[in-house]
Amino acid sequence: MALLIAGLLLFTLVHLLPAAAPGTRDNLAGKLGDNAYRALFSVVILVSLVVIVFGWKAATPAAIYAPPFGGGPITSAVIFFAFVLFVTSKARTNYRRFVRHPLMMAVILWSVAHLLVNGDSRSVVLFGGLGIWAVVEIILCNKRDGEWQKPAVVAFSADVIVAVIAGVAFAIFFYLHKALFGVLPYWSG
C-alpha cells in the first residue's frame, strides 16, 4: 500500500503546485524555460502514474465497507457524465457555463462512482485520494483565480459534439474495462 500512497502523493503534490504556489511554478518555469518545465512536469507525472499502477498491483486489498451499489445504470450514468465533463474541459461548450472546473468535477464524479462499487482499501486510497485531490485543486484554483467569469454562450452543436465524443469514449472504455483493469464495469458480473 505504501507504493500506491507514494505514487498518489507525488501525483497530487505536483498537480497542486501551480494552484497552491503559482510563484514557485513561475519561478521554476523561468529558470528552466517553459518547455523544459512542461517536460519535467510530464516526466514526474508519468513516473507517479507508473508508481500508482505498481502500487495498486502490489497492494493487498482489505474490505473496508460494503459497497452500496454493485454497478449498474446509476454508476454507468455517473461515469458517462464524468466523460462529458472530461471532454468539456478541452472544448468550448455551454456546459462550461455551469461547471467552472469540468476536469476536476470529472475526477470527482469518477471517484465517487468507483467508491460506490468498490469498498476495499486500495480502492479507497486510489479513488478517494484522487477525489480529495480534485476538491482541494478546485478550492486552490478558485482562491488563486478569484471570481468566476462565465464564458459566453456558444452554439448548441458544440454541446452535442462533446456529448457524442464522450459517448464514444465511454463506450470504448466500457467495452475494454475488463481487458484494461481486470474488472467488468457493469452489473452482469
Annotation, overall tally of beta strands: 0
Low-pLDDT regions: none
Mean pLDDT: 90
**Major sheet: size, sense and barrel closure?**
none
Beta-strand share of residues: under 5%
The whole-angstrom Rg is 18 Å
What is the share of helical residues? over 70%
Tell me the count of domains: 2
Structural class: mainly alpha
Number of helices: 7
Taken from the alpha-carbon principal axes, the silhouette is globular
Note the gap between the termini: 26 Å
List the secondary-structure elements in sequence, H or E. Answer: HHHHHHH
Note the main attributes of this structure:
mainly alpha; 189 residues; globular
Q: What does this molecule look like?
A:
The two termini are 26 Å apart. This protein is mainly alpha-helical. It is built from seven helices and no strands. The protein is 73% helix and 0% strand. The chain has two domains: 59 residues; 128 residues, no CATH class. It is globular.
Element layout with pairings:
Elements: H1 2-20, H2 22-32, H3 34-58, H4 73-88, H5 102-117, H6 121-145, H7 156-181
In short:
By secondary structure, this protein is mainly alpha-helical. It is built from seven helices and no strands.
